[in-house]
């Protein structure tokens, strides 16, 4: 019988994947879903969020933060916050500001910090009880945590988000991940942030029947489906003892052709909807 992982989550925020029927995710025992919120808010955004909420999923919503927020963007943000303030209380402000692929100047997070503070103020004005998450850090870990603290964001962050991706095919991948996590925790302690929750809000690896079907992902050789399953099981079982409160697997279903690299195969389901070994390794029947 698969292990029971409490508070397991699925992230759909870093991909083009748009799930509108969340019943299978909930039935598999994933209580959290991480979604992108696109602004300005439209009917599709509302339907996707409401569909997840209707299935009893808790949402971590990623705000599409801009380097220099305009008045129209702030107006769109206020509209979205007011629309969802009764149902959604966890907001990730931007995503991966330490990765140039997400459009942020690589200026030691200064531009991001300025925009983050403005967005955080808007969120707290509309929902004082909201939990504000930093945009998940990956490339700058653990230094990015220190930089955000030095830039005055620490008092506004309720939950720290990190994206500690590693390739399970690397030698002693588990040891490398533990070392990575220890450095993150040490930095949080140094900054006086150790008592705040730490979430891995996006983490995954490819899982392919034939690793030659796509180019290697950004961390090297593509793992096969069984390696993906073993890695997923390790991540969800090891994270809680290491002090990680919440883990989100990046991707529900494979999306071949999106990037033509291994990241198109992060999913727990194949493109035809059949479950991969990773799904069976970490999913559990819903108790709801």
Helix proportion of residues, in percent? 25-40%
Annotated CATH topology: TIM Barrel
Biggest sheet features: 8 strands, parallel
Radius of gyration: 18 Å
Fourth-level CATH superfamily: Glycosidases
The proportion of residues in beta strands is 5-15%
Mean pLDDT: 91
What is the count of distinct domains? Answer: 1
Strand order of the largest sheet: 5-4-3-2-1-8-7-6
Query: What is the straight-line distance between the termini?
Result: 18 Å
Report the uncertain regions: none
Shape: globular
- Pairing-aware structural class of the strands and helices? alpha/beta
* Name of the CATH class: Alpha Beta
CATH architecture: Alpha-Beta Barrel
Question: What would a concise description of this structure say?
Answer:
By secondary structure, the chain is of the alpha/beta class.
């Amino acid at each position: 019988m698969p292990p029971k992982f409490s508070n397991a989550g699925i992230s759909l925020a870093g991909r083009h994947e748009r799930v509108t029927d969340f019943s299978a995710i909930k039935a598999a025992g994933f209580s959290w879903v991480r979604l992108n919120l696109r602004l300005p808010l439209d009917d599709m955004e509302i339907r996707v969020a409401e569909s997840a909420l209707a299935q009893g999923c808790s949402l971590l919503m990623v705000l599409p933060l801009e380097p220099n927020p305009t008045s129209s963007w702030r107006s769109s943000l206020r509209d979205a916050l007011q629309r969802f303030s009764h149902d959604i209380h966890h907001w990730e402000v931007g995503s991966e500001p330490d990765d140039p692929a997400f459009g942020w100047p690589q200026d030691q997070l200064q531009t991001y910090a300025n925009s983050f503070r403005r967005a955080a103020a808007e969120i707290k004005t509309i929902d004082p009880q909201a939990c504000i998450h930093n945009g998940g850090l990956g490339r700058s870990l653990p230094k990015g945590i220190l930089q955000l603290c030095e830039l005055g964001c620490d008092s506004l962050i309720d939950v720290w988000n990190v994206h500690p991706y590693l390739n399970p095919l690397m030698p002693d991948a588990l040891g490398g991940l533990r070392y990575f996590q220890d450095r993150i925790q040490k930095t949080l302690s140094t900054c006086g942030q150790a008592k705040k929750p730490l979430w891995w809000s996006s983490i995954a690896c490819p899982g392919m029947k034939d690793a030659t079907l796509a180019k290697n992902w950004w961390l090297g050789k593509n793992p096969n489906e069984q390696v993906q399953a073993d890695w997923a099981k390790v991540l969800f079982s090891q994270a809680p003892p290491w002090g990680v409160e919440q883990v989100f697997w990046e991707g529900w279903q494979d999306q071949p052709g999106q990037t033509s690299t291994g990241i198109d195969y992060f999913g727990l389901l194949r493109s035809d909807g059949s479950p991969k070994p990773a799904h069976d390794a970490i999913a559990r029947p819903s108790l709801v």
